[in-house]
Fold these 2 entries.
Entry 1:
Amino acid sequence: MTRYAAPGQDGAAMTYQSRYDHWIGGEFVAPARGMYFENPTPVTGQPFTEVARGTAEDVERALDAAHGAAPAWGRTSAAERANILNKIADRMEANLEALAVAETWDNGKPIRETLAADMPLAIDHFRYFAGALRAQQGSLSEIDDDTVAYHFHEPLGVVAQIIPWNFPILMATWKLAPALAAGNAVVLKPAEQTPASIHFWMSLVADLLPPGVINIVNGFGVEAGKPLASSPRVAKVAFTGETTTGRLIMQYASENIKPVTLELGGKSPNIFFGDVSSAEDDFYDKALEGFTMFALNQGEVCTCPSRALIQQSHYHDFLAAAVARTEKITSGHPLDTETMIGAQASNDQLEKILSYLDIGKREGATVLTGGQRLELGGELAGGYYVQPTIFEGSNDMRVFQEEIFGPVVSVAQFTDFADAIKIANDTLYGLGAGVWSRDLNTAYRAGRAIQAGRVWTNCYHAYPAHAAFGGYKQSGIGRENHLMMLEHYQQTKNLLVSYSAKKLGFF
Amino acid sequence: MPTEPTAGRPPSRVDLTPAAADLLRRLHGTHGSLMFHQSGGCCDGSSPMCFPEGEFRTGGSDVLLAELAVDGVDRPVTFWMSASQYELWRHTHLTVDVVPGRGSGFSLEAPEGVRFLIRSRLLTADEADGLPAARTGGGPDH
């Protein structure tokens, strides 16, 4: 067991500044109106830094810097940009523990996840887009003997990115890496719940990038996010969050005729066919871990497997084993490497989860384990902790239909393949899903029948670069984590060239 | 806790706690007429988002659940939800409350250090029978 020191304590891997201004044009810039907001750590509920409270004036200043940097950055060679992305990855790798501590302190998630998942994935993501860029080619179409259509990739220019709070550095990376690779300058607004860790990341890599290529404006959605998302000076808006804000961003984008990519969450089914329990072997053990993945990152994952569908033939035995596995989840200090589940990211998130535990019970769902706020003592007494919770009920209950964004799974049973698919698809969303079966014909057919952008098959919660990630239905628009997202950050320039000296003869 | 049904009062789909009404009065003083649109999805989903009336464009894919009267506010605060989400919520009564928090989305109250929150209970059979159909948005009067 290792217990990492909190930021700023003796022996800590990193220290936060006591204040963060905006990062604009390669330097800290104080907010135009001089306002700041306190940023608490969810671990203890105590503030540890204050952060600029940005407004439209700050957004304009960041856009000025980005527009100043974009033309030259967009003309750098693919090799040059890829080298910079690789250097960013190297710098992160050399500071992996410091980044992990920073992220855990800002967000509340356990250090075992930031060490083993968030940071390694973010590092690999920069390397992936460095490689993707080097391998990307334009195309040409030979129209006829004298006419050729050339297709070039060009950057969009200046793009806006609004980042969620559940994986602050990793989600920023999912958006930054393809945008930078494509040659865009960025104005990025971190979530107000987790505004600090991205500044620590920026402090590690700032010298690798020309000033103005990345600009960070902090603040609240209504004060800083809205002027950014509605600005006619951005060529694209990328957003991860929820449906109402997603629609609002589309409305703003429609006023300026700009593209958006949106990732708006889900209510992901995790389907366990009966043959999973035909042997108590490694695969069975893996499937039980797959069930328990609802507690990863305290359930604050857009693809949280928050609806477990278990076939009738093994329902009671598998569910009993799943409850036992869930009850082995270790809660505790997020900076302790033994801790499996940390703090919810904010007080309002905690309150929302508790409101769902309440309506779940009122609708008649049975609590099989958990069901309450978790009171941890000592310095954690003011933190935001929830017991991993399993509800048993039916798919028409609200706890089966809404993304609670907490460590809460709702379990129902199904009879056969058709019933499983019917329940799985009975949702407004279609981001993720899980399918578990030893019969790969069944697993394949289920994966193709589920209306979701990502179907984990005999695995769950893996997020490797080079596997496209994005939603069907109300879960959003676009595919991240893949070469496809590079193209979401590029224009297509077509040169249609005639190599004939002869006129057409019309005039 | 959500508000409980009160005998003698017409049934409603949405209520406000006193703290939520107080916050709406303050926001009205700064921003004028207000509306809610109930969010779904991840992150700050499932939260009611408060906007200046008309900032969020509702249409035929939305339903109007309530026009909330707030003492001291001249125009009622409209409460909207997407029609597809309403199909899944229609058996429940909603109470808009407010809690300390960081907020998110573009909701107006976030800079105040508080967040609107929905508390829910089941509609009673009497309430469900007594409620008129929720009105769909869109059309010439919007």
Entry 2:
Amino acid sequence: MSERCAVIGIGQTVAKSKREDVSIAGLVREAAVMALGDAGLTFADIDAVVLGKAPDMFEGVMMPELYLAGALGAVGKPMIRVHTAGSVGGSTAIVAAHLVASGIHQRVLTVAFEKQSDSDAMWALSVPQPFSSPLLAGAGGYFAPIIRAYMHRSGAPRDTGMKVAVKDRLHALKNPYAHLHIPDISLKMVEESIMLWDPLHYLEACPSSDGAAAMVIGSEQAAARATSDTGRPPAWIHGMAMRSEPTMFAGRDQVNPQAGRDCAADLYRQAGISDPRTDFDMAEVYVPFSWYEPMWLENLGFCAQGDGWKLTEEGATSMIEGGDIPWNCSGGVLSSNPIGASGMLRFLETALQVRGLAGEHQVADARRALGQAYGGGSQFFAMWVVGADRP
Amino acid sequence: MSRFPELVSGHRPVGVVSFAQYDNVRREDDHNEVEMLMPVVAEVFGAIGITKDDVGFICSGSTDYLVGGPFSFVTALDAVGVWPPRAESHVEADGAWALYEAWVLLQEGEIDAALVYCFGRSSPGDLSEVLALQLDPYYMAPLWPDPTSLAALQAQALIDSGRATEADFAAVASRARRSALTNPKAQVAYDRSPEELMGEEYEVAPLRRHALPPLTDGCAAVVLAAGDRAHQLCQRPAFITGFDHRIETHAIGARDLTRSPSTQLAGEKAGVGRKAVDVAELHAPYAHQEMILVDALGLGDEVALSPSGGALAANPMMSAGLIRIGEAARAIWSGGADRAVAHATSGPCLQQNLVCVLEGV
């Protein structure tokens, strides 16, 4: 039997190109201390620490959790390091939540980070490996052909991606933690930015960020205590799921991966979701390149196959346009991308929303929200549903 | 008599029901990680007559720096072939921690079985340089301290404390390599007396060659099953009755290197001392570390220490810890032990430690 669990504390750093004022330890500690403060706790109250980040070569430190044990107050406690590619921030939160759901711990601190300025992600992604073709163009070069396949398949107009790029940057203006704040963002500005990987313009790609995210996951008892101490409500976890599929095989649908659809189906079963567009009040979804919004709208069942771009075009996912299902109100990955933390930021933002603590980018009366992260070549998925109501 | 032992950790009995490992070799040039894992995964399933379709979760352990590229676990998953898609996760750590994650999930009762696997090759790079990158990037790594030099500091501190001599290290190595003679997967096994080993040159004083682990390429896999499913799959499952892991500070200068408080605490939480221990499989890459671990776990002379030869017989990175759990389980399956302790370590000088107590009924 799994126990109820909830997000009871949230912390995040401002994302920016270079956090030269802090070490890696300083960066993660900043988010962790903020999450503990939000929960009315100190490091002494924490039972275990779960750390996630993307490939270690992104900083050039092998298994940095060993070095970070002190900074995260883990000395004398269990510490686990998760790495599941780009989905890792989500998977890390899920591993932490299972430590509580299984009844093993009461309060678990989970932290994810990337300090991209310490190394060079493009280099780290392009190291030659025996018998495999190098990914010299980075992640954008990998995904661009898949996006073109989506456009061909769905008949989407060429400006859908640009529309997402503008919408998420407008959302980011409401989020003080977002890396990119571009007040005069417009379709024209996106269109006039340099073409990186057709059809992706420079402004349709995520930035490289330094940043960290942290949450405290607590049991039902811990949640009650935190609420009475701080006056802030928990975000109850209504379901969580992970799915993986092989990287390559003939017939694999990379545009609409089966692993994503299966993951969502498992998640919706747990959380009692029958119509995602109606049942969710908002969603934070991993959209590192603009076109992944319409693609994931379909993969996550928010609309019929081939209709994702229509939701984007009609403004359904825009807070600014008063859409019925706002996506990435924080500005999303397109506005902040500390890679290892990007998935956790999605999960964390959903928790902020259902707690009513999202500030300027708060969706009015958000009761239930979807967090999604994906990684690799869209073969790894992690998702959760959080709600204001106890499940 | 109950079909399940009393649990100290968790509330649902979960047993190790299958274990397989690759031949531990100095250098596997002919096969990559996926090719090494495929026969091991086939064996771990085949031995109990199940397939990947019978496990509800898969968790792996590995680290990118051994492969020298990002996302090394991504292609390794092809050794299992996760189609249709599967619930799957990965730790950047020894497979023993992957097994812990799977055990946690099994506690919740949604699934009844899980696959855990891990891999690590030391041969593609210079392991001493690679492991130096595991250290504090600002204050330690720039000095490139190699793991043997750090272990030598620990060994010297142990000698200075008056609790061990170099001859004691030789005795540990002599016993471990002799035990390894009966382990077909051992990479280094011999019958040489401690006196003879003392004649070896120092690698880094006070550690002579015999006190060091071999460089190993290898991989391993385990199947866990919960409740009745464990009994269906295995004549005598090795049930996990106690399970805990703890970490210490990374700052070597701030630790008493002659003690392992994280092992001691994990051992207490896992209930090691509650009943007699028949076998202990300890992940002690350097001979003197076995003595520190034995102290921390409070193991007496009656305990058979690392009958497989332990990490001195074969030390595949990211796998040697899971292999200890597999070997301890094997001692339960055979009836040779009723209660076994398995241990895994990570980080410089035993920084992080995991203790798993296994029992048969």
